[in-house]
Amino acid sequence: MGYEGRWMVGVGGEFSVGGGMIEIYVLTEEQGMGIEVFDREVDCIGWLHSERER
């Protein structure tokens, strides 16, 4: 089972990339994760807050 690229993540198995942000909705978690990148370095990793992100 692979991950599918989407404009906005919402269910397990989806990811999106844009604007220095990678969002991944991991299959084993109830909420998504966000990875903020700057150039070639990871700047911040954290849980997405669905109320604020949408």
Please give a structural write-up.
The chain has a single domain (4-53), classed as Penicillin-binding protein 1b domain (Penicillin-binding protein 1b fold, 2-Layer Sandwich). The chain has one helix and five strands; from the N terminus they run E-E-E-E-E-H. The model has no long low-confidence stretch (mean pLDDT 87). The relative contact order is 0.21. The longest helix has 4 residues, at 50-53. Helices cover 7% and strands 46% of the residues. By secondary structure, the protein is mainly beta. The protein has one helix at 50-53, and strands at residues 4-5, 14-18, 21-25, 33-38, 41-47. The protein has a five-stranded mixed beta sheet, with no helix packed on it.
Tell me the name of the CATH class: Alpha Beta
Radius of gyration: 11 Å
Order of helices and strands: EEEEEH
Helix content: under 10%
Overall 3D geometry?
globular
Strand order of the largest sheet: 1-2-3-4-5
How many structurally independent domains? 1
Strand content: over 45%
- Characterize the largest beta sheet: strand count, sense, and whether it forms a barrel: 5 strands, mixed
Distance from first to last alpha carbon: 26 Å
CATH architecture: 2-Layer Sandwich
Instruction: Give the CATH H-level superfamily.
Output: Penicillin-binding protein 1b domain
Let me know the average pLDDT. Answer: 87
Number of strands: 5
CATH fold name: Penicillin-binding protein 1b fold
How many alpha or pi helices? 1
Structural class: mainly beta
**Low-confidence parts, pLDDT < 50 over ≥5 residues?**
none
